[in-house]
């Protein structure tokens, strides 16, 4: 437990990350992007519509769009923050020394992951004041905000773990970046396409009676976009029930899948960080 | 103590290291000599738990490199031939990070860091960013880093490579100091005379094989079966040349008439060489000096490695 709480790699990484101008600039642009959108929407709603006020339903609409923007930003930033964690050390020739210290492989991987997550959580938290502007106008419950925060946390954890896994098993950062962005695009985009295909198949491609489609439900359940939709608009999820003929809460599949994905990615990263000295080759 | 048994590393049909057997006693400074690709860094990487051997085994203070790599890491301080530094860390933070990585408590690290910086003459750079230090300073800082957990064994891969003469001398002085502290040191270098000065024993690697091993003097003597001898005469060169060409074990006689010098190669023992000199003196040949030309370690290395086939 002490090793988990006191992690030299985590402390070193945080020091390096927050001393870098890139982190502050990144954070600034993230908040600017959110602010431009929120204040822009409020400005449009209050001035251009001529009403001079902001209705709760508009606030709710803003909340949905803001959540999707934040999801997009997070999906875009997480691979960039994590896919170079180990491979950059390898390229900078600092990894060999790190690997000869008596730190366990899991400590190094967790330190790297925790520092990346800490920065992402900082981004999410620093965006909260802008995010909570929607409360001023009503229409959004705090519980939804908490759910979305937890959803973001799990998503960045899983994609961050994938980034670290690719960073460990590939020699070059560029390859790791491509693999991580590819995986992220698969989860965020290709799964939706597979869902449509599975639904088409369950309908016999227009030539038969619809049958329950577990695959369509599965692909929908692991898509972050659909998961966000289920959180911001629970009533709207009836569309999935109609299409897949299955009434099963998608968050259970989402949480289980992403936890398993995280565990798998971290397991591989820990196993592959150091050579297996015992194995003869 | 380091024990290496049949250590082999093969990449396809290429042997980077072939059946290395070696025992290095406690407190011994052992120098690995060899050309690029001879297997020095491969040996060091295996001993530092960074590279899987194809076969064989190595023990550091009784801990198996293959079966107890975590225990081995606590025993060794490793300095690779090429290494990077974290550009946003200061010298003391750099050492602090590695100290923490070895589980040294914070209060202990606070005492240790100034001492180590003092040892490597970097006290004045304590609060400088590591990236801004010169190459020699980075090498010394890396050496301090490898000492932070007080390892019994130091594995130093080309610690003086790329350094200017002053930095080399500084590095050599630090290593002598460490030798005095009783550390077992494995060091590789291309600067062979430096190794000769520092090392108790040397091992010559060529084509992944250990072709010679022993004390510097032993290797020197073993390989000097044909040594050059120079004689300075007070004239009468042809008479001396005629005499020396008749003697056994003598070959390649060369003369320098301007300087009255005769140089020849001699394969006999030291006793036979003494007899030769005695005979020449008794014959009243006008000898001023009779000296054996010292070969340096580089000549020895060239002698050992010539003719060894690369596998």
Description:
The complex is a heterodimer of chains A (281) and B (311). Chain A is mainly alpha-helical and 281 residues long. Chain A is built from 14 helices and no strands. Chain A starts with a helix and ends in an 8-residue tail after the last helix. Chain B has 2 domains: 2-213, 3-Layer(aba) Sandwich (Rossmann fold); 225-294, 2-Layer Sandwich (Alpha-Beta Plaits). Chain B has 11 helices and 14 strands. In chain B, the strands form 3 sheets. A 6-stranded mixed sheet of chain B has the order 6-7-8-3-9-10, sandwiched between helices. In chain B, strands 2-1-4-5 form a 4-stranded antiparallel sheet, with helices on one face. A 4-stranded antiparallel sheet of chain B has the order 12-13-11-14, with helices on one face. In chain B, a hairpin with a 2-residue loop joins strand 4 (55-60) and strand 5 (63-64). In chain B, helix 3 (91-101) packs across helix 4 and helix 8 crosses helix 11 (297-305). The two termini of chain B are 29 Å apart. The chains are: A mainly alpha (281), B alpha/beta (311). Chain A binds chain B through residues 6, 8-9, 11-12, 15-16, 19-20, 92-94, 96-104, 274-281, and chain B through 48-55, 65-67, 69-70, 73-74, 76, 78, 80, 82-86, 88-89, 93, 97-98, 100-103, 142, 145, 149.
| Uncertain regions spanning at least 5 consecutive residues of chain A | none
What is the strand tally of chain B?
Answer: 14
Question: How is the main sheet of chain B built?
Answer: 6 strands, mixed
- What is the average of the pLDDT values of chain A? 87
Q: How large a portion of the residues of chain A is in β-strands, by DSSP E?
A: under 5%
The string of secondary-structure elements of chain B, in order, is EEEHEEHEHHHEHEHEEHEHEEHEH
Number of helices of chain A: 14
Global outline of chain A: flat
- The CATH architecture term of the largest domain in chain B is 3-Layer(aba) Sandwich
Distance between the termini of chain A: 35 Å
Low-confidence runs of chain B (pLDDT<50, min 5 residues)?
none
SS-derived structural category of chain B: alpha/beta
Main CATH class of the largest domain in chain B: Alpha Beta
Distance between the termini of chain B: 29 Å
The fold-level CATH name of the largest domain in chain B is: Rossmann fold
Number of strands of chain A: 0
The helix/strand order of chain A is HHHHHHHHHHHHHH
